[in-house]
Design goal:
Blueprint (H helix, E strand, L loop, with lengths): L8 E2 L3 E4 L3 E7 L9 E4 L3 E6 L2 E6 L4 E11 L2 E8 L14 H76 L2 H10 L11 H6 L1 H17 L1 H14 L51 H11 L24 H13 L3 H14 L4 H13 L3 H16 L7 H21 L3 H15 L4 H5 L6 H29 L3 H14 L4 H14 L2 H15 L27 H5 L6 H20 L3 H14 L4 H21 L1
Parallel strand pairs: 1-6
Antiparallel strand pairs: 2-3, 3-8, 4-5, 5-6, 7-8
Helix pairs in contact: 6-8, 7-8, 8-9, 9-10, 9-11, 10-11, 11-12, 12-14, 14-15, 15-16, 16-17, 16-19, 17-19, 19-20, 20-21
Length: about 625
């Protein structure tokens, strides 16, 4: 409801024209150029530079695609091109508000259609370019393959030529030369078992050795023995004896059997740690996975992949729903709501009929501010209670129905659905009237009077919210007096309605009531700084929900405000501080304005606009002090 807290201010401009162009000069008033948003259609121009906005409906059409914008000395210069070359009598179209609004709508529709066409063309162009790039890459790959094939062919030819030359040279040797060559270079005997690396490194050498051996074995066996004996007679020290060929064998044991027989197949059972996600487990992702499982537990059984991880062979106790529910109760009593939620979810996965687990899990969701999930669990538990298969006795049914209706109403209220919350609380009140004394004692102090007080509070919230929405609409239509009256009526019902206070402060600022604006902002800031958390709920026996709704179930302030520390609450605080700072600036209270902008900058340190405004205020204060001195 804070999207209308800061109402935009109308921007200023001046313009000049030629027969074919328009030029608009728009002072940015300190807004950074990066924060300026420009939208041009055939008949409209919209410039948004918060907190200012400028909307113009042209008297004639311009080119929606051809325009330029630049910033010089803090002034935005927008150049537009006319569709027809002519002098315009006026820049803006003249007519009723409804007519101008209709022109705006038509222009936006045309522009959207034009943008869709441009997007389609860009997409088609991108696809065409991608196809061209793929074809080009395929051509390059083909060229590289051809080059590699050519290199292989050349290397093959060179190797073949070298082999043929060797054969030719050996054939030309006479027998005497062959014998001498064999004596000087005896063939090398290699073992049968060699490594792959040695074969690759000495491939050419082994080829020629084998060729020599082949020729020698064919032609000169007798000559070798004769020459050997002659050499041994001449020189006893010369030893040309061949080494005997040695065969090396590597022993490889047979495959192991299962122990029964050598022919049967061995099957070794392997069990892995059960895991829900099909991806490798990483410690850095453990927390994210737990959060995801907590939010999506109800859908996992229907998931094609995740459902397989739920049916593992784990410990029996970890699949027992009663044991899991007791474990969830222990986690909850220790304040570990996420672990309790996971335990209840696991119990529901094992037995979808565990009504108490749905009820208790809804409280965990409520504690974790997951209000939508809380409502769904309450609805499921109520369906199971009304089912003919429910085994609970009527007394427990009535008691759990009252608790679930109140809890679902609380979640709806915290989501802003006050009408739904009223319906649930009225039904809970009707059921409450039929409870006996023993059942009432198990509600931990919830009485008929406290229920009536909650219903009255919900009625006020519903009526105040309706008045606020009506006031917001009137304010958007510039009916400030009527909007202020509606804001006053809403705040008369709920004085602590923060968003209503903040919107009324914006209305007062627009009407010139700066003092009233500061007062409303201060009251809203005091409420936003309130960080009281709801009281810790108690617990009941294990046969029922461990968290019945306590007395005074609806904390009015917690219902209106976002949770403490949430991003939404911080955003509300920043906007309200800035509005009060602007009001102080206009009231010439520079010290107070600097304090407000400093607090806003501390809450949103990445906002460069706040820092720039703060620096301007500090410079202005220094100049003011120097002038006084």
């Amino acid at each position: 409801h804070f999207n209308t807290l800061i109402m935009p201010l109308a921007g200023e401009y001046d313009w000049t024209q030629r027969k074919d162009t328009l030029k608009l000069r728009i002072p940015l008033k300190g807004v950074a150029p990066a924060k300026v948003d420009i939208q041009v259609t055939e008949s409209t121009l919209k410039v948004n530079y918060s907190p200012y906005i400028l909307e113009i409906v042209f008297s004639h059409d311009v080119d929606a695609l051809k325009h330029k914008a630049s910033v010089k000395d803090g002034v935005l210069i927008v150049s537009l091109f006319k569709k027809l070359e002519m002098q315009w009598d006026s820049l803006e179209a003249v007519g009723d508000k409804e007519v101008l609004l209709e022109l705006k709508k038509e222009a936006i529709l045309k522009q959207n259609k034009l943008n869709e066409d441009l997007t389609t063309k860009r997409s088609e162009k991108r696809i065409s370019e991608e196809k061209h790039a793929v074809r080009k890459q395929m051509a390059l790959d083909e060229m590289e393959r051809n080059r590699l094939e050519n290199v292989k062919l050349e290397e093959k030819k060179e190797a073949e030529t070298e082999v043929y030359e060797t054969f030719s040279r050996l054939n030309q040797l006479n027998p005497q030369q062959k014998t001498e060559q064999k004596i000087n270079n005896p063939p090398k005997k290699t073992t049968k078992v060699t490594t792959v690396t040695q074969e690759v490194v000495e491939s050419k050498k082994n080829i020629f050795d084998d060729i020599d051996q082949f020729l020698e074995d064919d032609d000169i066996d007798d000559d070798i023995h004769r020459i050997k004996s002659n050499v041994q007679d001449k020189d006893e020290e010369t030893n040309v004896e061949e080494a005997p060929e040695v065969e090396e064998f590597q022993f490889i044991p047979p495959p192991r059997s299962s122990g029964l027989s050598m022919s049967c197949d061995a099957k070794v059972p392997i069990q892995f740690t059960p895991r829900l996600f099909p991806t490798p487990m990483r410690e850095s992702k453990a927390s994210e996975e737990e959060d995801w499982i907590a939010k999506n537990r109800r859908h996992l059984k229907k998931h094609a992949v995740m459902s397989k991880g739920l049916s593992g062979n784990g410990d029996f106790s970890e699949e027992d729903p009663v044991w899991l529910k007791a474990k969830g109760d222990d986690f909850f009593r220790s304040g570990d709501f996420k672990s309790a939620l996971n335990a209840y979810s696991a119990a529901i996965d094992s037995d979808e009929g565990m009504i108490h687990c749905y009820s208790n899990r809804s409280i965990c969701y409520l504690k974790l501010h997951l209000f939508s999930e809380c409502k769904l669990d309450c609805i499921k538990a109520l369906e199971l209670l009304s089912s003919p298969d429910c085994t609970e006795n009527q007394s427990n049914k009535d008691l759990m129905t009252v608790k679930l209706l109140m809890r679902r109403g609380t979640a709806a209220c915290l989501m802003g659905f006050f009408a739904e919350a009223l319906v649930d609380y009225h039904q809970a009140n009707s059921k409450y009237m039929g409870l006996s004394g023993n059942e009432l004692s198990r509600l931990n102090g919830v009485t008929h009077e406290s229920l009536q007080q909650d219903i009255a509070q919900l009625k006020k919230l519903h009526d105040a919210n309706a008045l606020k929405e009506e006031a917001d609409s009137l304010f958007a239509e510039a009916q400030k007096d009527k909007a202020l009256t509606k804001y006053d009526e809403a705040l008369a019902l709920i004085p602590m309605h923060v968003s209503c206070l903040s919107n009324r402060s914006a209305c007062k600022m627009a009407m010139g009531d700066l003092v009233g604006c500061v007062a409303d902002c201060s009251q809203a800031i005091n409420l936003l700084q309130h960080d009281e958390s709801p009281p810790r709920n108690g617990h009941n026996s294990s046969n029922s929900s461990i968290l019945p709704i306590p007395t005074s179930t609806l904390n009015m302030l917690n219902t209106i405000l976002p949770p403490p520390g949430s991003e939404k609450r911080t955003s509300w605080m920043v906007k309200t501080l800035m509005r009060r700072g602007v009001s102080h600036t206009q009231l010439d209270n520079l010290d107070e304005a600097i304090v407000d902008f400093s607090k806003a900058s501390a809450l949103d340190p990445k906002n460069e606009n706040i820092k720039a405004d703060l620096n301007k205020l500090m410079n202005t204060r220094e100049k003011s002090k120097q002038m006084k001195q």
